[in-house]
Give the backbone structure.
Amino acid sequence: MDSPFKTPSKRSMSQMLPSSGSSSPFTPKRSKIKKISSDSVSRILAFDESNSRSPTRRKLDFLSFSQNSLLLNENVNENELTPCEETTPVKIEQSNCEKNKILLSPSIKVNPKRFNIPEQDKNIIKSSSNKKSGSVNSTPSKKSKLLSVIAGCKKITSYFKPIQERQNSITNEVGNHFSPAKHKIKEENVNSITENCIKIEKKVTTPDKNDNINNIQVRSPKIISVSSNNPIVKKTSPRRKVVKNSHSNKTKSEELNMAEQMTPSKNGSINNSSMTSSRILEYLENKVVISGGDTYSRFIKSIVLRTEIFCFGKEDIMEKIESATNDELKIYGRLIARKHGWIRLNAPDGLQKYKELNLCDNFDSVLESLATKQLINTDVTSCELDTLLNILKTQELKELQKTFNINLSFSKSQTKPAMIKSFVNLVKNQRTFCGNSTSNLKERIKNIIGYCLKLSDTSRNDIMSCLIYESYPYFSGEEKDRFRECFTKFNLVEKNLLKFPKFEAKRVSINFCSKEHFEMYKTALDLRHEVQLLLEQKDHENAILVLCIMFENFKSAICDKSNVESLLKIPTYLRKYSAISVYAHTLFKNITILKKCTSNINLAKEVLEFLLKHKEFSVSKQADLHIELAKVYETQYKQLDRAANIILNGLKDDNMTELGRQMLSKRAVMYANRKVRKLDNELKNELLSFAPKTEKEPPTTTINGKIISVKEKGSSGRKQVYSKITDNGDCHYMSVEELAVSHYKSQGFLNGLHDEGQLIKSMFLLCFWDIIYGSYPPYVLFISQYQDCPLDWRTRHFYKIREQQIKDRIAELKKMNVDQICDILKKFCDEYFETQSVINWKYMNVDNLPLCRTLLECVGIEVFLAIGDQILKDGRIYLHGMPDLVVWDVNNHKCIFVEVKGPNDKLSERQYSWLLKLMEFGANVEVCHVVGTGGKNNN
């Protein structure tokens, strides 16, 4: 039996580069650099070509489990390592298993461990491994698992027949090249860190003329040319290898003079102060050729040997890297990629492994040279006693306890921290023991540890500062992942396995007019990272302490009027790269944690009020700030009048976005209609005056579905599982979206997608490729070659800067027919396929052009262009939140955008706004409510 429904295969996680999971705030989840979110599952219906490179195509066959197991054996690489939706555990009743076949939908099949399956059925559907390809710790393959249980399988069939997915060159080439180190929380005490951060942040100095780097404009790749070849080349200092530049030394840049939400003026000039340092001129004129060594050494050189780094006072680290040999940088690059801490020689993951790799001729002499240059520290006795003890293994600590006659009565149950504490307490309580001083104890520990090293804190901090400056235009993940992700991109670009759009990049430092401002930015990033680590450890008390320090730093930075004024002159898409913006964003993101502060019950209110007072640094969160502050007054202080006035002030703000006004209006109506603690009539009427007029509500439909999920501990927040019996008695297990799709199939809509608008958005954006990645002087839109979108992406500036070009392109597309638009899509697909960009190539590729054609015919060109135009106008709001499904009937040229809502699920403000917009554009929309039955625990 063939079904017309198709489901795209998800890409193997082995085909994804390591990532923090945090996607760029400017870019939708779209490319192989970033992990595919577990809740962004896509479904394709009625598109039947098995020999296709498109991951959205599959031939759907219902097979017996024995047949399916053979197919899974042949296609194990495709189905292994696949992320899936979190699904509520399911209990398969024994009677159903015996009477009928159980057909599993893709979201259930790929990870059956999420289901509460009886013990006798657990061997039937094995979970695929979660390990990445190439991992030394990978679990047994699905093939071996299936072969071991195939004899006793019951009749459980796969919902869809897997096909061989197109090979990805990145998987084959990268492999084990980079294995991310496991992260642990920093050992330093939170209080000492935060005190140092306050000292750094409170430095307020007038930028020196020689420190100002706004004068420096370098066109990439004039300064650094990176070669992936590895010839044996005599090392040449950038100061000696000179290529004369035809450009004048008196390079000038345009200054972006701009108010808070205004597009930069095309008239203006940037800082014209002369550059007096001969070293700066030398770097500007010279062309630094980086070659030889391996990828690690070239990466270190590329981020350190830059003109701007000299201006930040990092000349010391530049000289150290310049003087280091390729062999030294091979080792140092690998060490800096690890977690910062002491590394033993013979530990399982210690220095010996580098020696065995034969990375250099004389490993010992390389380490000695690195120590001489003060890039590494080998004196373990210089660290604190508890840190030194922590290097030891548990068994070594027990032996040391015996040596010093520490009570061992409960040693078997002692944890490592407890053992360390026993030594610290002993040293604290008596000056000497066993005739030895503390220094002698350290020597004893040193003898046990053997050779051990740690990266020099100063040099490492300088290199991480260089990395932050190099990557700030495109990196937005967690600090612990910055080196790994930036190095991976550098490596893949060198090997031509990763490509970015071609654009004109200008290395102009807009925000960091002095090294003090850059250090403030780095301090803000460090504090943000510290908060993330503490929250991961569920240490809310110390997280609140660090957030309080960030709040104090935020207020101190705001007091620097010259800094604030300079930031307000640049657009918001550049303003975000500043310490003030980092503080504002982090404080609001963690407002829920601040509400838990018991030592200062007014802390959350004070933070929100200060953020609202300086809302120019939280432009995208203005509505949320008003709502959160109103909640605090309503719930904590029981002051409904004050809460209502805060909402009213937000509604009166002319800069409030359409979505923000909609969110505030909803809360205004709620306050006005309160039955208890009512508002006075004057305030109530004023609130209602801002409420929107009665708008046309989107049509709704209701369908029924049997929930078979089992309520159990830990299943909260997972997707429900539904069952449906076919005409032949088979039982289908599926998600709520798949249930809705089957309903619309019965209504005649044989084609459909569950992609939340990814395909139609990618179709539109591809038609505007040259406009998105074009040059628009004097605006600074591209700073780094690793950007996959312009800096103003997802902001209102994007449309204002390109308004005329966008209008002209839309006018051209309106005159075209469907075939002509598809020709444009094919041309750009052939030219830019798999380029890291705003396009989701999972959907938008040549193989899916027939699907694009039928969808475009049913949606209509007018609606298609209206949707895309809305996205370009306000991408921050409308790049996400489109309806879950788009279903269409090719024969009758009908199309419906469907938002699916399960039991107890409600429309979000963004989803509601999208439905209203689609109705305004003339599209057919519908909200499909699924009413669930069953779902009780039968245990």
The first helix runs from residue 65 to 74. The two ends are 34 Å apart (CA to CA). The CA atoms of residues 645 and 683 lie 8 Å apart. Confidence is low (pLDDT under 50) at residues 1-85, 91-99, 114-195, 197-277.
